[in-house]
Amino acid sequence: MFFIYNYSFLEIDTLFEYLKLSYHGLTFDTAAIFYLNSLFVVLSMLPFGLNTHKIYQRIIFYVYFTTNLIGMSFNFVDLIYYKFNYSRTTVSEWDVVKNEDNLLQMFGRFAVSYWHVFLLFILTTALWVFLYNKVKTTTKPYAKGVISYIFSSVVCFLVMAALMIGGIRGDFKKSTRPINLVDANRHTTKIQHADFVLNTPFTIVRTFNKKSFKKVAFDLQKSEVDRLAQPMKVYSKNVKNKPNIVVFITESYGREYMGAFNDSTLIADYVSYTPFLDSLATKSLIFNNAYANGRKSIHGMSSVLAGIPSFKDAFTSSPYANQDVESVVSILNSEGYDTSFFHGAPNGSMGFLGFSNILGFDNYYGKTEFNNDALFDGVWGIWDDPFFQFMKTTLDSKTTPFFSTIFTVTSHEPYIVPKEYEGVFPKGDLPMHQCVGYTDFAFKQFFEAAKKEPWFQNTIFIITADHTNQIRYSEYRKPMNRLAVPILIYSPNGEFTGVQSELAQQIDIYPTIIDMVGYNKPFRSWGRSLVSEKPSKMAPFIVSSMGQNYMYSEGDIICIFDGKKAIGFYAINDLGLESNLISKRTADMDAVELACKAFLKDYFDRIIDRNL
């Protein structure tokens, strides 16, 4: 089922490859089955005379199906969720929904939207119960007396326990620890194949109560880390009239949807769904080789505003999030800016309110402040168009200079638009396309209204996305391009224009803003200014997670790193990560791996030592 629902992302090309990966997956299936059924096995094998009694058997029947159906339900979740997350679900996904106050409503909507998955789960469960009940338990007298029975039961129990331990560990070798998520990569040539080898109950169990925020034990001196990661930046641009800054973090607005960021000659039958943003791009500085530093909305917020990427788990959900964080907000506060954050969802949704308070925004504007539930989409928040206008009206009353961020909501599952706009925007080939068109229209309405205001001319607008969403073109199904987001910088006075193809990423936006406003003191930033007047000593790079591994790209090399060592090197144009060059290691590859280690060491050291 997982293959059928996600075959276009998994890139399993032959029957032999399918069977080979399925074979290796049995190791992880075995471990998951033993994890889920350990209590059932123990209860079934205890040497009690009553363990064949109907009541006892009914008890372990419920034990069996409680644990197994909970585990199996996660597999069914990933039939759909994998398309959005591009990795097997782990415990960290709870961070995405735990702050929502409409979980039952969301569940009901998913049940309607993905009714076929729920039906498959129900049918599978019914068949499972039917087959379970086909196994009949009978009572037999002790063959050679109670002592002999207990002795044979103990031996049998110990044998079974040994087998279970071996199954959970992955094999019986003394050197083997219990297999983990990264072990799935041992049998694959493509990163995404590890997700096929794994199963979701296993990834849930193996990440339960695990802390992914740990210091890394790389043998690197601080001077070397500082040289390679360059965590402290300083710029010296002279700005006489400090500009206002408005940042749009656009929900799920992948680079794929925007014509200005795509060469239609390279993608057959390419169609853009953003006519307004495409026109704005001709008067802007755009980065057509930019990437997200995470896969979830909260990852995008911390990456863009604080320059802090997230990997397996969100920094904002870690035990270390509640600390002083130097960010674009704290620096602009110190420069006398009025700072505000807008998000049309119920206040507190997605953890944005809490993190905005950590960053130090002067004001938070959510669904409560909008105060008109008639324009609530019934799912996530206020429709983009009216909420954009609400932000514009609010900014009209601000004292300049101001810094404002809006996190949009409409361009997202369940892919609906206001009733009055049904049929207005091209529906394209994916449900997402209509929403992209509507949000593009909301941008147009905002800019048409804002340009009439006195603050508009001295404002710099930055448009990006938190992550990607539904994919139409095979080019964007490639693992690297699943992180492809736009970065657009627009200044009405024409200061920033052109197309830049160097590597760029979300964490570059924070230092870019600090450079643009003329801040000339040292500050913490792992990213780099994209508009620096002086050539940077820091090479353009991108860093993110690739399933359970890290991805670090610099120059013409992509490095896949498992937390201890590089497990793959690829050419920068090998976006599908198809040709692993690790057997032909070069000095340049060694240098990129070292830069990755330096970044991760400084990242975890600063977070855990509360030195952000």
Structure overview:
It is a single chain. The protein is α/β, with parallel strands linked by helices and 612 residues long. It has three domains: 2-207, no CATH class; 213-230 and 537-612; 245-309 and 323-531, Alkaline Phosphatase, subunit A (3-Layer(aba) Sandwich), CATH 3.40.720.10. Helix content is 41%, strand content 11%. It is built from 19 helices and 16 strands. It has helices at residues 2-10, 15-45, 54-85, 94-97, 103-113, 115-134, 146-169, 193-197, 200-207, 222-229, 275-281, 297-306, 328-334, 352-359, 367-370, 384-396, 431-450, 509-516, 587-608, and strands at residues 232-233, 244-250, 285-287, 290-291, 338-343, 363-365, 402-407, 459-465, 487-490, 498-500, 504-505, 523-524, 541-546, 549-554, 557-561, 566-571. Strands 6-5-7-2-8-9-3-10 form an eight-stranded mixed β-sheet, with helices on both faces. The protein starts with a helix and ends with a helix.
Shape: globular
Q: Which structural category fits the helices and strands?
A: alpha/beta
Strand content: 5-15%
Strands, total number? 16
As laid out across the biggest beta sheet, the strand order is 6-5-7-2-8-9-3-10
Low-confidence stretches: none
- Determine the CATH superfamily of the largest domain: Alkaline Phosphatase, subunit A
Mean pLDDT: 90
Cα separation of the termini = 44 Å
Under CATH, the topology of the largest domain is which?
Alkaline Phosphatase, subunit A
Tell me the Rg in angstroms.
Answer: 27 Å
**Per CATH, which architecture of the largest domain?**
3-Layer(aba) Sandwich
Number of domains: 3
Instruction: Identify the CATH class of the largest domain.
Output: Alpha Beta
- Report the helical percentage: 40-55%
Number of helices: 19
Main sheet properties: 8 strands, mixed
